[in-house]
Amino acid sequence: MKRQKLFTAQETCELIFNQAVEKNDQDEDDSSSDAEENNDEDRAYGPHASSFSEESPTSPAAETEEQYEVMENDEYDEEESEPEMEEVSSVEDYTSDEEKESTDEEESVEEDPAETEDPAETEEYFQSKDKKLIWCSVPPSDRRRMMKVERDKSHCGPTTYAISRIDDIKSTFALFLPKSIEEVILNMTNKEGRRVYGNKWRKMDPIDLQAYVGMLILAGVYRSNKEPTASLWHAESGRTFFRATMTLKVFQKISRIIRFDDKDTRGDRRARDKLAPIRDVWNKWVSLLPMMYNPGTDVTVDERLVPFRGRCPFKQYISCKPGKYGIKIWAACDARSSYAWNMQVYTGKPAGAQSEKNQGKRVVLEMTEGLQGKTITCDNFFTSYDLGLQLLRRKLYMVGTVRRNKPELPPALVSKMNRAQFSSKFAFTETHALVSYHPRKQKNVLLMSTLHRDAVLSTRDDKRPKIIEDYNRNKGGVDNLDKATSVYTCKRKTASWPLVVFYNILDVSVYNSFVLWSEINPAWNQGKCNKRRLFMEELGQQLVIPYIQRRKVIPRTPETARFVRENRQFCSSSTSAAELPHPAAPTGPSPKRKRCKFCPSKISRKASKICQKCNAYICKTHTITVCHACN
C-alpha cells in the first residue's frame, strides 16, 4: 500500500486555491460569450446586481476559497485543543464536489482520537504448531474471561491429628514410624535372623529397632555417612555414644539381617512389582504423610534421586544430579517448608511393555490427588497444555516452564530471532497464559500458567514477567528437601537397594518431624541457626536411652563407662524403675576400683562393681545377685 503524504491545513488551502485558479484560467476563453449574455441578464435585475457587485467581486476562485475558509473554520472550532497534523493525500482529486465531501468524511474518521487504535493494544493471533489452538496477544477481558478457581485459604501447617499426638520430639518422629511399621520390620527381621543364625539369634524387640534407628540418626548428625562403620566404634578416634549404646558386632548383625518382607513369597510378588521387597512398608509410610500436614497455597512437584550404584532393577541415570546414578522418586512438597506431602518410587516400565506416554501429566495428577485450591509448580518435564486443563478441573492452578518442542506452542513465541534483550512476548487463551522471555542473545525462556491473567512485568532492570518471579519463588520445594536430607543423612554404605530406600524413609521422616515440631513449638531454640542438627541429636538420644538402660555389661573404656553411669543416674532420678521398659541386670566389672561404701574404713576394701540404682561402689561381700523376674 502506498504511503500518503501529510499536509497542514494552510498547505491544503493553498493547494485547493491554486487548482481552482488553474481551472478558471482554462475555461476563461471558452466562456466569454456566455459571460456577455449573463451580463445582459444581470442588468435586467438591476437592484440585485448592484447590491451583489457592491459587496464582493464575483470570481470562481474566490468562491472556492471562501467555501474552504468556512469549512476550515468549522473544523478548527471542533479541534481547537488538538494541534495534530491532518492526513491528506496528494493524489486525491479536489475538482469534484462529491469527492471533496467523501475526502472530508475520511479525514474526520482518521482524526477522531477515540477511535484511533493504540499499537500496543492491537490484538495479534498466533496459531499453535499442531494448528489446534489459537493464542491471542491481549489478556482476556470482561468479554472473554479465563476459567477461575478459588484458591484455598484454609489453615496450613500441622493437622489437628498430629498436634493432638505430639508430646515431645520422640513422639513427633513416632508419627512417621508407628507400631504398624515397626511390627512388619520386626517380624520379617526375626524370621530372617532365625533362618540365618538359628537358635543363636536373639529376638529383636521395639527397643532394639529404635536404638538401631537412633544410631543411624546420630551418625547422620556427625556427617559420618561415608565414614567406615568400624571407625565410629574405635576406642580413640570413635565416638562415645556409639560404644555406650551397643557393640559394633550387634550393629553390623542388624544391618545384615534387617528385612521388610517375607523372602519366601517374594518371587511371585516381584514378578508383578519391582518394589516388592519393601512395598508394604513404603505404602504404609506414604499414607501417613498427608495425614500430618496441610500444605500451603503453593506445592512443588519434582523428582529426587537417592544415590545408589549397586544392583537394582530400576536404577536410573540423571546427569544433572550430584549422585548421577540412583533410585528416582517423584515427590510433592510444600513450597514454603519443603514438607514431603507425597512420594512415589519410579520403578520403570514393566517387562515387555511399551514406553509410557504423557508420563509427566500422569505423575502430577497422581501426586496432587486430594488437593484443591493450590498452585502446582513444576518444571518442563511435567508442564503441558493438557495438564493445565486437567488440574483446572480439579480446582488446581499450574505454573511451570515448558519445552520448546511442545505442539501447543505458537512458533512466534518460540522463535529467538529479532528479539530485544529483556523483552517479553505474551499469549493467552481462555484458560492459559504463555510468556516468552528473552534474557540474552539466542536464549528465551518459555513458561505456561493457568494462574496469571495479565502481562505484568516487574520493576527490576531486567523486566522479568510476574510469571517468572512466582515460578522462581516456588520451584525449590523438592530441591531444598534434597539438600537438607543429604547434609544430615543416616545412609550407610550397603549393596542392598531396599535398605537404601529404608534409609531415605528415615531421612524424610526426620525432616518432616522437624517441620512439625518447629511449627508447633516456634520458641524452641529460637534464634539458633543449627536447630535441625539439635533436633536430630536430641531425637537420636531419646531413641537409644531405653537400650542403654537395659544394657547388661558396662563398657570397659573409662570414658564410655562414665557416660553410661551418668546416663543411668540421670534416668533413675527422673524415671522410676517401674516405668522402664526392661530393667537392667547386675552390672559387670568397672574399669575403676574405689573403696566399698559399706565396708569399714579400717578395712579399706577396694571394689570395681557399682550399684545399679545409686551407682555406689560395692564389694563382693555386699553384692546381692538376683534374676530378672525377682528384680
What would you say this structure looks like, in words?
- The protein has 631 residues and is an alpha+beta fold.
- Helices cover 42% and strands 13% of the residues.
- The chain contains 22 helices and 19 strands.
- Strands 7, 8, 9, 10, 11, 12, 13, 14 and 15 form a 9-stranded mixed beta sheet that branches. The chain has a two-stranded antiparallel ribbon with strand order 1-2.
- Strand 3 (125-127) and strand 4 form a beta hairpin.
- The protein is elongated.
Please, how many helices?
A: 22
Which structural class should the secondary elements be placed in? alpha+beta
Q: Into which percent range does the helicity of residues fall? A: 40-55%
The counted number of beta strands is: 19
The main β sheet shows up as: 9 strands, mixed
Instruction: State the low-pLDDT regions, or none.
Output: 1-7, 35-120, 142-146, 575-591
The coarse silhouette is elongated
Distance between the termini: 108 Å
Please report which band the strand proportion falls in: under 5%, 5-15%, 15-25%, 25-35%, 35-45% or over 45%.
Answer: 5-15%
> What does the radius of gyration come to?
44 Å
The residue-averaged pLDDT reads 80
